[in-house]
Each structure stands twice: as C-alpha cells, then as structure tokens.
Specification:
Radius of gyration: 19 Å
Number of helices: 8
Strand order of the largest sheet: 1-2-3-5-4
Number of strands: 5
Length: 201
C-alpha cells in the first residue's frame, strides 16, 4: 500500500504501531494492541480469527497492511481505528478473569473508551476529522446489529449512564439502520437525581 504514514503511537503508555493511508484511513496493528493487553500468541491469533469471520469488519474494518516489524516490512493484520472499540467490546471478560486479572479488565475498558481518539489525534494533530465511513444497512445482518446494540448497552451500563441516555443512544443507532422508533421511546425524567459528588463538579 503506497503513501502510508507509519507511527508508533503512545496509547496510555503502550507503543502501538499504526498507519494512515492515502485515503485518510487509520489502521491499527492488532498484534500491538494484543501485546499491550498482555495476550498470549494463541489469544492474539484467536482475535484475528474472530475479526476475520465477523461480518461487520468485512465492510472495510480490517485489512492486511505492510508495516515495519522486527523481521522487516511484513503484511500485518490491522483494524481500522474507528472499529477498535467494537472489536475490543466483543472480548468477553468472565467473572473469573475480572477477579484474577483486575488490571487487564480495567485496561481493556480504558482501551475501549480512549484508544480510538488517541490514535486519531496522533495523525490529526490540528483537530481534523478522520473520514466517516457509512455502511449500507441492508448489507449488515440483523444479528450483527443486535450484537452491536447489546455490546453498546453493556458499555453504557459499565459507565453508569442513566436509562434515558442509553435509550437515546439505542434510538440513534437504530434509526441509522432504518429502524424508526416513536418520539416517546426516550423518556427523559422531569428531574434527574444528582449525587453530592456530581453537584460539586
């Protein structure tokens, strides 16, 4: 792939190999993210396999990109930076893992929330915007949409989002896929309960 701009991006203390192509797409080396999350070689290969068979990523969310490695320039499996949160959100954290590896669970969540923007900023230092890719909803299976909404709901609940905000996000995504919901689907409370901590901010 010609005209690649390759960088080692500092993502919360980890060096992640990424590249921007001539069309403005930012590609992230899956191996480096897996290494940062302290995954084994087998776990990394499993992640690559999962991404390859996922219909959502077939819409341009993954690619083989020539990147410099310890063994020279090699075709490396990459994920487009705006697909990184979706990929990481699909990694299941069991209760056992949460108990035995709490640091991993916390770091994975931080990557889900922040990695995409950090990577974009590394290539767009002047506040520019990465290109927006619009998928044809008709080409995305209903099951994949349901899976995405389920993951989005799980992340929102982890952040203690209020129910009406979760519903608003659900409505917004649904409408992008042609699913029309009534205006009263999002029930905004007349009063929103605030904690002493939030009032003081």
């Amino acid at each position: 792939m010609e005209d690649l701009i390759v960088k080692n991006v500092d993502v919360m203390g980890d060096s992640i190999k990424a590249a921007k192509d001539a069309d403005g797409n930012i590609w992230v080396g899956v191996r480096w993210v897996c290494d940062a999350l302290d995954m084994t070689e087998g776990q990394m290969k499993r992640q690559v396999k999962n991404i390859k068979k996922d219909m959502v990523f077939s819409e341009g969310g993954s690619n083989q990109i020539p990147l410099p490695t310890n063994s020279g320039i090699q075709e490396v499996f990459c994920v487009r930076h705006d697909f990184v949160p979706l990929w990481l959100a699909k990694i299941q954290i069991t209760e056992k893992t949460r108990e035995e590896r709490p640091d991993f669970a916390r770091k994975l969540m931080q990557y889900q929330l922040k990695a995409k923007d950090i990577l974009a900023d590394a290539f767009l230092p002047n506040g520019g915007a990465a290109p927006i890719h619009v998928c044809n909803p008709a080409e995305i299976p209903l099951g994949e949409l349901a899976s995405y909404l389920k993951i989005m709901d799980r992340i929102a609940r982890r952040q203690n989002l209020s129910p009406h905000r979760i519903a608003a996000n659900f409505k917004k995504v649904s409408e992008q896929f042609g699913v029309e919901l009534t205006e009263d689907f999002v029930k905004v409370p007349e009063f929103e309960q605030l904690t002493i901590e939030s009032i003081g901010k």
